[in-house]
Amino acid sequence: MKIRVVLFVIFLGIFCGSAQTDTNTDKKVKPKLVVGIVVDQMRYDYLTRFYHRYGEGGFKRMVNEGFNCKNNHFNYIPTYTGPGHASVYTGTTPKYHGIISNNWYDKETKETVYCAEDNSVESVGTTSSSGKMSPRRMLTTTFADENRLFTQRRGKTIGIAIKDRGAILPAGHTANAAYWFQGKDEGKWITSTYYMTELPAWVKEFNASDKAESYLRVWDTYYPIETYVESGSDLNDFEGGFKGKAQAIFPYDLKQLAPENRNFDILKGTAFGNSLTTDFAMAAVIGEALGKDNDTDVLALSYSSTDYVGHNFGVNSKEVQDTYIRLDKDLERFFKFLDDEIGADNYTVFLTADHGAVHVPAYLKSTGIPAGYLNYDSRKEQFQKFLLDNYGTTDIVEDVSNDQVFLNRSVVKSLGLNLHEVEQAIADEQLSYPNIAKVYTATTMATTSFTEGIEALLQNGFNQKRSGNVIIVNDVAHIAYGRTGSTHGSGLNYDTHVPLLFFGAGIKHGETLKKTVIPDIAPTISALLGTSFPNGSTGQPLEFVLD
Hints:
By secondary structure, the chain is α/β, with parallel strands linked by helices. The chain has 21 helices and 22 strands. A hairpin with a 5-residue loop joins strand 8 (177-182) and strand 9 (188-192).
C-alpha cells in the first residue's frame, strides 16, 4: 500500500511539474508585442549582397539571434504592394483576400478602384482627400484582427507606413489606428475616420515637431562612396533622379531640391523616409503604451521609401545600397529602443518584403542578358483591329489593365457569342503578339487545378469576382516602364524571392533552405500567440521557426 502511495505522489509530482513547466513556457514565449516589418521592394539578395556592410544590431542581429528562411517566395501573381501587404498578414493570396492589385477595374461599378480607397470615410489630420482610406476592400481577416478578437479587443493594433496601403491592409479591419504620411506642403502623419475622429495627442505632438523638416538635408552616402563596390557606378544611364539636379549622382541637397519635387514628398524617395518612419514608430510605441500589459499588441510597420528609391534609381544603384545601409541603422536603433522600452525577451519581430524588383532592363541588355520594354500602344492598336475584324466592335472589351482583359458580358451576349469561346479567341490572338509568353482564360483558371509553375501563381492571384477574363504573362525581364529605374509585378524569382527573418520571444535560432511562402507568415504568428488563424488563411505554420 505504501509503495502505491509513493508511486502516486511521484506521478502527481511529475504531472504537476510538467504542467507548471508548460505554463511557464507559454508565459515565456508569448510576446507582449509583435512587430511585423515589411520592407517595400526588398529583394532577397539585398540581405546577402550588402551583408558585410551592415552593423551587428539590425539585419545581422535578426540573422544571428533569430531564424532565417532563405528560400522564401511569393506564391501568386501579381507581386505588387497592396496584394503583398495583404498576403503577409492574412496568410492567403488574392484569390481569397481579394486585393488583386494596387488598382483594378471593378466589374460592378465599371471604374478603376484603389485597394484602400473608401469615400464613405473622411480624412483626419489633413484637409486633403488623402485620408479617405480604409481596409474595406480586403475580404478576410489578418492575424492582427484575430489577436484583437482573442483578447476581447484589449490587445492593440497600430499600422504605420509612408504609403497608406502599407499601413492600412496589414493592420486589418479591427485596428485601433493606421497612420500614413501626407507629404507635399504638409509633412504630417494622418489617418481616417474609419479609425477615429481626431488625432491622438502624441501624433499631434509629433506632427508639430520639426522631425520631417529635419530630414530635408543633404543625402550623401553613409560610408565613402568608393567603398560601395557592391553596386554599379554612380553615374550611369539607368537611373532617374530628382527634378532640379542634372545628374542622378550623390550628394543630393534635399532642402534645395524639395520645391521642384513636391516638397515633403521628396523624403519618400530617399533613405530618410525610413528614418522618419522609425521615429514615428517609436513615438507610437510610447504614445500607445504598446507591450505594457499581458495582452499582446501588434505593430504593423512598413518601410515604403525603399520602393520609391528602387523605382527611381534601380536595383544596381548606389542609392539603393545606401538606403539599405541606412535602413540597417534604423533597425538597430529601433531594436535597441524596444529592448529598453519593452524588454528584449518580451517582443517578437518578423521581417519580410511585399515584392522584389527586376534589374533595369536597359542595364541587363548592356550585359548581354535578354530583357526589354513592352510596347502597349502597338499591342492596343493590333488588338483593336482584331476586335473590329472579328466582332465588328471594340465594345466587346470593357477594360485592359494589369495584363488582364475584361470583357463586356452584355455585349458578348447581345452579339450571340459564347463567352468562353471569345475568351479563348482573344487568348490565342494575344499570344501571337511580341513579348507575350503565356495567356490564360478565366475559364481555365476556374476549371483547372495547377500545382506548380507560373500557372499555379496565376491561379493563386485569380479572384473570380474581381479578375479579368484573359490573363497575360509577359516575357522574362520585359516591363512596361520607363528606361530608368526598376519595377515589379511578375511571378519570376527577381519579384518573388524576398527575405523572411524571425527574431525575439518564442523564436528558435537557425536557418533553412526549405521553401517557404508568404502566406505561411500569418499562421506562424497566430500559432505563436495561440490565436485562431486568419479566417481565409491558406498558409502553414512554420513549426521549425518556433521555440
